[in-house]
Amino acid sequence: MIESIVPETESTEPEAALIAGLGSRAIVLVGLMGAGKTSVGKRIATKLHLPFIDADAEIEKAADATIPEIFAQHGEAYFRDGERRVIRRLLDGNPKVLATGGGAFMNEETRSAILEGAVSIWLRAELDVLMARVRKRANRPLLQTADPEGTMRQLMTDRYPVYALANVHILSRDVTHEVVADETIEALLAFLAAEGSAQES
Q1: Average pLDDT, stretch 88-97?
Q2: 80 marked ligand binding residue
Q3: Is 140 marked as a binding-site residue?
Q4: In what order do the strands lie in the sheet with 52-54?
Q5: If we measure between CA atoms, which residue out of 134, 139, 7 comes closest to residue 67?
Q6: Which among 146, 147, 159 is positioned nearest to 35, based on CA atoms?
Q7: Does the annotation place 135 within a ligand binding site?
Q8: In 64-107, which residue ranges form alpha helices assigned H by DSSP?
Q9: Does 102 show up as a binding residue in the annotation?
Q10: What's this model's pTM, rounded to 2 decimal places?
Q11: CATH T-level assignment (fold) for domain 2-180
């Protein structure tokens, strides 16, 4: 669901520099379930006066079904195909903050589209933080196993090397999402400044 965020005040100088550095690119958050992509993404969007979109919500709207229902009725491959098409559509050349599902960045085509048309942020979290967060919700299809913690460990092993291809890495830990959002904006500014310097040289 797209949440239009209307600026209440003029952008500060760092915010203006960040928006200018982004150009037509989106900010895309990647990482495992429980990393805080939606919560942090909403706060970043508010601070930068950009629209926020949750890719999972868009997929559910397009399918007229919840993600657990899509997995149960059609399987993961069907879901991933829909996810790929939705994210490709959302990377439309308009700046925004986009939170993706945990498996989105694992798809080579989706990952290439994100790396080419967006600035990607990996919210990295340790196992204890992830498990504490995901236990609060029972609608995690990939964790409907006899050993959810073992499944999460395996997901971390499989996915973290791929998430590491993201442009910016942020540690999502046991602090407020507001703090993580501020740290992400600072890291984005540093990344865009370095990118601009490299282009000038």
Answers
A1: 92
A2: yes
A3: yes
A4: 2-3, 52-54, 97-99, 26-30, 118-124, 168-171
A5: 139
A6: 159
A7: no
A8: 67-74, 76-90
A9: yes
A10: 0.87
A11: Rossmann fold (3.40.50)
Query: pLDDT tens across 136-176, in order?
Result: 666 666 667 778 889 999 999 999 999 999 999 999 999 99
- Residue 131: C-alpha distances to residues 71, 94, 116, 127, 192 (Å): 21, 34, 32, 6, 33
Q: Which residue has the tokens 């399987």?
A: 75
Q: Which amino acid is at 192?
A: L
* φ, ψ (nearest 5 deg) of residue 124: -95, 135
State the Cα–Cα distance between residues 165 and 176, nearest whole angstrom.
25
Buried b (16+ CB within 10 A) or exposed e, 53-62: bbbbbbbbee
Single-letter residue type at 85: R
Q: Is 34 annotated as a binding residue?
A: yes
Whether 81 has a binding-site annotation, put simply, is no
Q: Cβ(187)–Cβ(14) under 8 Å?
A: no
Distance CA 69, CA 60 (A): 9
Q: Tokens representing 41?
A: 């993404």
CB of 183 closer than 8 Å to CB of 124: no
Tell me if 157 is assigned to a ligand binding site: no
Query: Would you state the structure tokens that stand for residue 165, as one six-digit string?
Result: 């291809």
Q: What is the CA radius of gyration of the chain?
A: 17
CA geometry: angle 69, 73, 76, nearest 5 deg: 85
Q: Which amino acid is at 120?
A: S
48 and 189 in contact (C-beta within 8 Å)? no
Domain map (residue ranges) of the chain? 2-180
